[in-house]
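Entry 14. Structure prediction run on the chain below.
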Amino acid sequence: MEENEAAVPAQPAASPAYEPDRAGFWVRGGALAVDTVILGLCFFLPIHGLGYLVGFVYKVIFTSQGGQTPGKMAAGIKVVTLDGGPVSVGRSIGRVAAEWLSAMVLLLGYFIAGFSDKRALHDYIAGTRVVYVEGVGAGRKAAFACLGVLAIFMFIGSIGAFSLGAIGGFGKFKELKVKSGEGATKGALGSLRSATAVYYGDLEGQYPATLDALVPKHIPAIPSTKLADHAETAAWTAYGAEVCTGKSEYGAEIDVQKLKDTGGWGYVADPKAKCWGAVFVDCTHPDSKGRPWPAY
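Output returned:
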């Protein structure tokens, strides 16, 4: 090298890219469980809906003032921007609002944090990530990871219990609906028979040729049947002597095997039939008590 050649100054080494110690999904779940317990107390406030507002403000303030809610403080983690900087108030508001999206569809947006980048949906939206603070030991990480596992499985268990309860409740509701329809049908049957009996008395021993002859003098309208095995209907079917058993005992006059099972009303319109004037439910299926409908 020439003596008079100027020495080239050495270039400073490039600073390493920011590589944080990212908090895992289970640890974040443990921190969320702590915050959930704290915020759960807000729903005992006397004003309806105030708990949601308090929860929103709670997260915004703590996230923008150091990146740590009490749950994250306990777990030793915090929210930072992608370059490791603090989270502004505006970004904090956006992140907390985006948590509603993460909570939709069984917390799917939170479960995204279980993948390699360890960022939840609201982190992607707000441009943030959750990292460990300096000096967090392995024991603390393990403890909050276990808490996260417990919280997630309790959540899954509660969803399962709710689903079973909903299924059971639907079944109970369906059962009540069936019984309600049966009660209405039996009440309507009584009204039709009463109207037929009054008609018989008015005409001194003559039943109507059709059930429609009862309307409107003896009954305002033909009521509808409401059966579990048939669609609701006010239609009626005329029968002859072939459906009469010849028995006079109440509920034994009609031969169930001879019915057309229309789901509406049956009426024996033949004056020569032994059970002339009989009104019954034209259904061969039993009711919820196991009793044939024509037996009523």
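The CA atoms of residues 23 and 137 lie 12 Å apart.
Filed with the rest of this week's runs.
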